Amino acid sequence: MARKGVKKKEHERLDDATLSRVVSLLEQDQPITKKAACEILNISYNTSRLNKIIQEYKDKIDFRERRFKQNKGKPFTDLEIQDLITDYLNGDSITKIADGMFRSVHTIKSKISELGLPERRKSPSYWKPDIIPDESVSENFELGELVWAARYNSVAEIKADKPLGHTGLFRIFVFGKHNEFAYQPWWELGKLDIVKKYNIPVEKFIKYEKPQFAYRID
Hints:
The protein has seven helices and five strands; from the N terminus they run ααααααβββββα. It is an alpha+beta fold. Strands 4-3-2-1-5 form a five-stranded antiparallel β-sheet.
């Protein structure tokens, strides 16, 4: 029978950094008291629960270390690549992706570069979007094609197979936190052939059930 995990209360500090600090303090030559450990974690003084929390943390760390060792130097599976592409384009941090895949940050960064995924800015500017790399630039897109919208720093779907008149503006729907229709010029839209190559469905990028029927054209 699987052991039930310790339930965390809202006010308790059971994050990895705090638990690591407490474990270190308890295992030093002159350890702190368990009462002091409980105070640091902001939990009620209960040695039995404290022991369970610490053991669960140690088990998690041991498991992660084993998985990292197993994956070190191991090629990515297609399923892992699909998850990496989806998570990265959906805005997850590289650190979060690395932790979830039990890979090093360096390995994840190298794979992102190898796959030719668009560079994602930490502080994107709507008014000064990144320049789309030459290898991803195109004046033509298919209806329903997924692209990288530089102005939004997000995945978008092409909603018209031709630009608006002679403006070069394509009608798109921007996913993620934007969740809106917009018109953007082709030179601000990057091809995402890698998404098609790994058969990643559009549903992977939809975070809202209902679109906001608003249009932007700048």
